[in-house]
Design a protein that fits this description.
The protein is α+β, with helices and mostly antiparallel strands. The radius of gyration is 19 Å and the shape is globular. It starts with a helix and ends with a helix.
Length: 286
């Protein structure tokens, strides 16, 4: 049962080039292993992890995973199962990794399948998930056998919250059963990491090394959305996160996410959520 976890741990240490300062396996109903690292700058290295992996950074400089800069200490990063990802430690960093066996039960299997549909790591800005994982890490650092029931409850709540968040994001996840998925992987990663960049069909099709017309067909087959639909959904999902977890002005959010104007963001957001961005933020902070 621990074979995937142990292999993922070995691969992670090979990237980090440091031994964990805390390492604890917990045999809950969903077995998991938590490790905490303090490491120095390391060059890029590409690996595919065989277990479900969740990361939480406490302090330090950025960790880069593909083109995603993971730097927030109030966010959780999920890494897709079995997908090649290039990691780079860009300076001294303090972080924890949670490894979960991907086929323990129906819930972990479901989460694993959802994560496999991602083109790369995903950052979740969710206060409850952040608090649950921090409590899990804190409890494991002082683990005693009598804590097992408590850890069962915390780990189950953590997985349920991850499943809930991913379920709400499923409109921008991909169909992992498509044989064409690898052909557009780089293009989709580019969309997620360059929402204010050149997202033209011409540019995206070049990344996939196919013609613009064939790229449209491939993209629709894999994602179930046209390129334009997928970009708008991804921008709106990120806009919701920024409205919830930042104090950025709506004008700044529109510019940061590549909308033509604040009114363009407002129109698209209201169409998808029945509330304007201002109304959405006001409702959340009542």
């Amino acid at each position: 049962m621990r074979s995937n976890i142990d292999e993922a741990r070995r691969l992670a240490v090979d990237v980090i080039k440091a031994e964990p300062v805390m390492s604890q396996f917990v045999a809950t109903r969903t077995p998991f292993h938590i490790e905490r690292f303090i490491c120095a700058e390391q060059p890029p290295k590409t690996i595919a992890l065989p277990a479900l992996v969740f990361g939480l950074q406490f302090a330090g400089t950025n960790v880069q995973a593909n083109t995603l800069e993971v730097s927030s200490s109030s966010s959780v990063t999920l890494f897709p199962l079995g997908v090649d990802i290039t990691y780079q430690m860009k300076g001294n960093v303090d972080f924890s990794i949670i490894y979960v066996e991907p086929i323990t039960n129906a819930l972990t299997k479901k989460i694993g399948e959802l994560l496999m549909s991602l083109m790369g790591p995903i950052v979740l800005h969710d206060a409850l998930l952040d608090a649950l994982i921090r409590q899990l890490i804190s409890s494991c650092s002082m683990y005693k056998d009598e804590d097992l029931d408590y850890l069962n409850a915390i780990s189950s709540a953590t997985l349920m919250q991850i499943d809930r968040i991913l379920h709400n994001k499923k409109s921008i996840l991909l169909n992992s059963n498509s044989a064409q998925l690898p052909r557009i992987r780089e293009s989709v990663t580019y969309i997620h990491t360059h929402l204010d960049g050149d997202l033209s069909i011409a540019n995206l099709s070049q990344l996939a090394h196919v013609s613009p017309s064939y790229f449209r067909i491939l993209f629709l087959e894999v994602t179930g959305n046209t390129v334009h639909q997928f970009i708008i959904k991804t921008r709106l999902e990120r806009a919701r996160e920024l409205l919830l977890h930042s104090d950025l002005a709506i004008t700044h959010i529109a510019d940061k996410l590549g909308f033509n104007s604040q009114s363009h963001l407002t129109t698209q957001f209201a169409k998808a959520n029945t509330l304007t961005p201002a109304q959405f933020r006001k409702k959340l902070h009542r």
